[in-house]
Amino acid sequence: TPRVFSGIQPSGGLTLGNYLGAMKRFVDMQDAGSHETVYCMVDQHAITAKFLEPATLAANTRELCAGFIAAGIDPAKSILFNQSQVAEHAQLAWIFNCVARMGWMQRMTQWKDKAGKNSQNASLGLFAYPALMAADILVYHATHVPVGEDQKQHLELTRDIAIKFNHDYGVDFFPITEPVIEGAATRVMSFRDGTKKMSKSDPSDASRINLTDDADAIAKKIRKAKTDPEALPSEKDGLEDRPEARNLVNIYAGLSEQTVAQVLAEVGGKQFSEFKPMLADLAVAKLAPISTEMARLMQHQDEIDKILAHGANQAREIAAPILKKTYEIVGMVGA
Ligand code: AQP
């Protein structure tokens, strides 16, 4: 069976963007049963951008684990674990640091965005981020990676690393990974600016829905979301040049598991004053049970830690032989 890998950073609370762009689709792939699914809290990635207090990183990691489970990831069906508990990721990443080229890394738009103007002050880890991400995926020989639109470029780099490794060492060892970017909500935008990605690190809390928000907060943020004065169109073309309207329709489609065309057939012609309460009701119905379950699970930290330890053992069973074989290919004595 083909293997799916994906991860989420415990760099802050989960957003609706993480949920629709990633987590919900992780659950769909798990439940489809056609793939072996491996999902990871990538804590080593979470410390690349800015300093995180140790207690915050630990709390975020456990909360993310609770989020995965509350959203429908079943540790009996998927391997669910924390990156730093499986040392093979960092070990393979070192090899990939020596395969990837500086120029490839410099072209990454996430590097450019996150390093900002003062890139001399950015961490070396932030620069090397995509090589660690390639190791996360390839240490499982995963062939499919469900992600949001923003990760497409990193997945192309993962393919480039696999191709160059295979070529340099004259082997056919690492698979060429396929990104899986599907659904109506692969790029959920900020509620304050329809041209900016909804992000957990946006300083404005009103720009996003957090998976820990209660029903009132969800409804209020949707009510206040930026829109334009026009009614909703009945056809998809009518959403062009209307990023805020398109975003809310995409979110509705993602949450209700419909296509954008189906949603517009239902809501075309309505004003936002009518559509926003519909969206708020839907969002509360879908998200409130997740936040309630997350809060419940967070009361049982020892259970979460047990799940992570078990997942790490399962992950290591796959990763260790692949790393060993990699070391042999590279010529590392004692592998
Ligand atoms: N707005 C989004 N729309 C759709 N998908 C999204 N993802 C993130 N934001 C959106 C997807 O979620 C997965 C995990 O993301 P991540 O935690 O690894 O990091 P990120 O992409 O950097 O997420 P954030 O929220 O934007 O974090 P910060 O603010 O720390 O940079 C990925 O599959 C991503 O595509």
Structure description:
By secondary structure, the protein is mainly alpha-helical. It folds into 2 domains: 3-180 and 300-330, HUPs (Rossmann fold, 3-Layer(aba) Sandwich); 205-296, Tyrosyl-Transfer RNA Synthetase, CATH 1.10.240.10. It has 13 helices and 5 strands. The strands form 2 sheets. Strands 1-2-3 form a 3-stranded parallel beta sheet. A two-stranded parallel sheet has the order 4-5. The longest helix has 30 residues, at 301-330. The radius of gyration is 21 Å and the shape is globular. The mean pLDDT is 96. Adenosine-5'-tetraphosphate binds next to helix 1. It is found in: Cytoplasm. Catalyzes the attachment of tryptophan to tRNA(Trp). Keywords: Aminoacyl-tRNA synthetase, ATP-binding, Cytoplasm, Ligase, Nucleotide-binding, Protein biosynthesis. It holds the Pfam family tRNA-synt_1b.
